[in-house]
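Q: For a teaching session next week I want to show students how multiple molecules come together into a single three-dimensional assembly. I've collected the sequence lines for a complex. Could you give me the predicted structure tokens for the whole thing so I can convert them for display?
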Amino acid sequence: MSLELFSQYLFAGISYGIIYAIVAIGFNIIYNTTGVINFAQGEFLMLGGMIAITCNQFMPLPAAIILAVLLTMLIGAAIEMIFIRWLDNPSVLRVIIITIGISILIREVALHIWGENVRALPYFYGNEITSVNILGANVSPQIFFVIGLCSIIVIILSLFFHYTSTGMEMRACASNRRAATLCGINAKNMVTLSFMLSAGIGALAGAVMSPITYTQYDIGTGLAIKGFTVAIFGGLGNSFAAVVAGLLLGIIEAFSISVVPLAYQDAISIAILLLILFIRPHGILGSKDTASLKEF
Amino acid sequence: MSAKKYLPVLWLLLIVVAVQLATSYSGKEFYLTQLTMTSYYCLLVIGLCMVMGYAGQISLGHAGFFAIGGYTSAALTTNNFASYSELTVMQLLNRYGCIITTEDMFGDTIINFHPWLAFAAAILLTTIIAFAIGIPVLKLKGHYLAMATLGFGVIIYRIVLASEALGEADGISEVPAFVLIKGLSVNGNMDDRVINYYIAWGILTIGALLLINLINSRTGRALRAIHASEEAASAMGINTARSKLYIFVISAVFAAVAGAMLTHYNGGIGPSEAGVMKSVRYVALVAIGGMANFWGALTMAATLNFLSLRGMFGSYDDAVFGAILILIMLFAPNGLFKLSPIKAIRQIINRDRR
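A: Of course. Below is the structure for the complete assembly, covering every listed component.
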């Protein structure tokens, strides 16, 4: 393999890996406050992309993206309030099935609003053929927006969770919900907040990735499965590990094209998911001792 | 055990006959086509009901098993294996009448396998895959189990979509009829509509009888104990892993039988049968019937599948199933038949008082 081809695969892998990592971070935020996986996480990305594309017809790009993020956050909060908030200590199976149902509904609504057309936001800088040459690979500048955005999200999130009082309250709910409630924290509001937060992050990622990967009503499921793979890969609940795992998966996937046909690419990454689940369900970076306290 | 547990089977048979007579006398025999398809889907759903309701494990990959059954049958009976005719295995199979040799319009030989052989291969393959997947997957719980089975379903979907031998996006069509015994075949001919209706519901009845026996057996009691509390069941000396695996494989075989039969009946199978939405739909049907309610699942599966196949939900087909899924899980997590409005209202009042 020549250096050019190698770096071309590498950058393709990095850009997809970062997107998977952002989905995984969305999973982690909700998992951390509720202990539940939101199967509709991929739909937030689709919504973010679609709303931004629609808004972009009436307003400049930055405004459209901000509006898309805000609207998706509202949708995320509404979903939590309508479907989850009032349930009395629901079983995991029940919440899984509810979030699966929500993802179907969002997808169908999107299908009836936007149709089956493949859409995309314009490139933030330049156009489809603008490229930067790095190590012989031609890389779209959009990738730098994706990478920059991801770094900002991870840094802000970890600052938020460790240094703001709201962030610390959310972490308190995660480690012991009853104790947190006894300390006067409104656990239910924290759950709503976590849905808003992960919806917002998802929407932002959906908008930024739209020029490279395109947006269609049914991209959510695929992204959710990849994002979950990454979240498990890194160890559920750990955002830094998610970034590492996301990059790893993205790069493995990109290089797998040179060995197996493109059509099997998804099968490869899901086979990786299954392997991890069977061998190390606590993730490559998770610790086995803490994992033994959790339910797999 | 008394014969009481078999009473619903009698009801099922009576209803099946009554529906056939009603459609024939009112000249609406075309309903039988969808009813036949419905019964095969029901076969899958009652199998899944055992896994979800009685063993308490979720499976979002049952469309995968359905597709393995259907595609194996279709590929072996439809693809031409003439280029392998020199192999010893093929000649051995030929001696025992397992191979059908025909000529196409240009005089070239076409070699297919007999549907019974294909069917046996489909069941065998499904059993092996279900064992191989089930052993590691069933160690997982909750989200992990849901995602792992979902992942399995997606892999099957991708393989089906990418394999040339399986027809890629077009699927396999012109699958021949499945001659069960002389004069009795599973096919989509108009003339055989009534007999196929009875074959389909007959298979479902046999499946139901098997499962009812299983529910009331030692294994069935073990499974219900696992659903209530896996730790307690384990402490009582139940081999929880083996019981769960056992029921998982059985339900996979049910799905494969349904897939193989429906493929012969429809004369083809496409990749959409392996799709994630199909798996979700089966889970929804089990949930609506009430997880551990065998007859409830069967009733709801029959009703909703029939309405869906008749096109009652139009372009909102998936949305209807999604909405039903959410509503049932929110308001009646024990199924529609366990719904008690008064109790629900009382609960809401009590909660506010607390």
